[in-house]
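hey so i finally got around to running the thing on that chain from the lab meeting. sorry it took forever, my laptop kept dying and i had to restart like 3 times. anyway pasting the input first so we r on the same page abt which one it is
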Amino acid sequence: MAHFAKLDENNVVLEVHCVHNNELLVDGVESEAKGVAFLVMWSNGYPFWKQTSYNGSMRKNYAGIGYIYDPQRDAFIPPKPDSDYVLDEQTCQWIES
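ok and heres what got predicted. didnt touch it at all, straight out
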């Protein structure tokens, strides 16, 4: 199973959905674009989807509701826990400063 985050227009994660791997394959290779196309059709045209990974092998962190997708970092960033935290650019996790 592959996982995709449904984003709002500000790149905030609204939901995370599973998609069967068969819906992603192009000539036996997984394609995020094919998964997004499947979800756009499945959701009656909702356009904002990004693939995510449980083990952080893509986009740094597994997407959760309230996370933000940062296109410059190509990463899902969790909500900032407190104003005293700073973003670790390597992990895109918040650490106490």
